[in-house]
Amino acid sequence: MRLFLAINLDAGVRHAIMDAAAPLRAAAPALRWVSDAKLHLTLKFLGQQPPESVDRLREALDDVAPRHRRFTMRLRQVGAFPNFRRARVVWMGVAHDARLELLHHDVEVACEARGFELDGRAFRPHITLARVSDGVPEDTLRQLSRAAKRVDLEQECTVESIDVMQSINGVDGDGAGSRYERLHAAPLRSS
Question: Is the preceding omega at residue 82 within 30 degrees of 0, hence cis?
Answer without folding.
Answer: yes
